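Q: What would this chain look like folded?
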Amino acid sequence: MKLFIISVICLFLQVRGQNPLGHWTLQPNVLVLEVDGFFLGQHLLTCLESLEDVMRREDQGQDIIWKKNGEETEQRGNSYQVQLIERLGGGNYTCHNQDGSLLNHTVVLIQELNKNRILEKTGEEYLKCSANNYSGEFRCSWTWNRFRDGKVAFVRARRDSGDGDMPCSVDTGAQQDFSGRGISCLDQQHCPYAEETQQIHFTVYVRSQHFLVEKYSIYFYLSEIVKPDMVRISKVNKTMIEWSYPNSWSSPYSYFPLIFQIEQLRCKKHENLNTECKAIKTELVHSTSTCHFEVKRRVKFVRVRAKDAFCDSQWSEWSLFSLRRRHKKEK
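A: My prediction, written as structure tokens:
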């Protein structure tokens, strides 16, 4: 009875411990192997897919040379066994003729299930997306893990309706900038005057220098991520300021109105030269054109930010304006 139980347990572990757990194609010549990170395994690569191509060769494929990351391996023939040890085994696999000419290549990426190491969380999310208007263009960014040399492997953005992928472009320097960077996309089918009925599904695959790949996804409506650019403030006279809508905001403003929050600040400089500012009055202003605002006496600074008047979306960054008078230099 004990022998039977042990045999069942061993069989269970053998089945559970088979790597890869699955495999799929990310892009042409880019293969993803799913592993659990604990067990050994193998996966078979093929150089020439067609049996006819193999049989036409004088050596019938027996002398095909295989290289991993540019280094020649001992394996020969039309097939190659990728050895999976925990989450290792990824690489750039190429097959060649005896004269060194390239026959085929496959980049093998390893995806360890339920593991995220390449990106760092910002708050509760790995990805942060925003749009500065309702044109259909948006940007998603992230923060690289400082101890992982990551880069973008593949990106996809589409509506739930599946009308097709949106064109996207990786920001310059996104693969090296630890502060984030990101990807910009455009929903060419988006109508800013119609209500959104389908969410956008944004997915980015990032990979490390050790051929590990990870998937990160986020769903959203444009109305949820819209964040206006900073407003422009100018001085009218000693007690009056004005500000206008950001140039990038959607028009007409009567159809896409913004609500503005204005804070009047009084600041105090301490002995350690640090300046502490405190809002003495905060107001909300609704306007569809240039705004004029009278400032209290002795107020030296004001700041203004804006958000969509109809949606529970993000506020813009604060625009700070100084009301201090500049003293003329003595002659």
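Confidence is low (pLDDT under 50) at residues 1-16, 174-179.
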